[in-house]
Prior knowledge:
The chain is of the alpha/beta class.
Amino acid sequence: MVAEVTGLDRATIPRGLADLTHPDQLPPAGRQRRPGGGRKPRTADDPTLVAALLALVEPTTRGDPESPLRWTCKSCPQLAAALQQQGHAVSPSTVGRLLHAAGFSLQAPRKMMEGQAQHPDRDAQFHYIAARTAAAQAAHQPVISVDAKKKELIGHFKTGGQEWQPVGQPERVPVYDFRSLAEGKATPYGIYDLSRNAGWVTVGSDHDTAQFAVASLRRWWTDRGRTQYPGAQTLTIVADGGGSNGYRVRLWKAELQRLATDLDLTIQVSHLPPGTSQGNKIEHRLFSVLSRAWRGRPLTSFETLVQCIASATTTTGLTVHAEYDEGLIRPGSS
């Protein structure tokens, strides 16, 4: 009669009566089962499972053995197959749970070692450059960050980024980027104005030389710098330690001296320590934006490259001017 009224199964009613008769055997509040109910973990039936798993992992473990976070180069299916050959009934998902419980996790290599001893005064170098930059900006003097971007092949080649296209109709490009099929190689040299959040990129068709770098600075100052900073007496440049504007490049120093003499301007250069190019402002404030400006569009000509660079912008108000340098004779060159 109770089953007909409530719609419960007849086998459920005796169990409910038993629970009412013995309330001390009911599960705790919020639980469907009494403690200890359900299927037992695999380690309860196989106490040697964890030891066998760690024996397989430890010989190939990388990193600090004392670290609580370790990683293995064997996959869960491979480890599960090896354990099954030893007589352990285990699945790849169970292996993954056991590894996490033992302090393992899947990790990728991280670039943190610079390959050389860190100079004890390197932190002081950064503080010095930052203080020098702040002082120049407080005095309303121009401060720029300079560097050469990665060279780009001009032609119908694949580039980074994506662009809206009809479904199933992507831009088709050659599988291999052969230099012989390119119409040229572009060398973008960038100048980033830290105070105005503005970029200037000169796209060259020849090698990345100190003359080309200083010629780009001359063009930027003639076109933008002298009008934006009419009372400037000092130009502060932050650059990497290598490349065409490296601290060991004598031609870079000679060309800068010639530029300072021609412009009647004091030029101060602060070189970042070796191996710290990512600390240069131009890397993550200008070049990272340019890398997305291609939008998957093949750079079929220098004009296309210049237009893509000039269209780059950010929500913080970045503006970029780009121009093509045809490799004309520059001041001071033979």
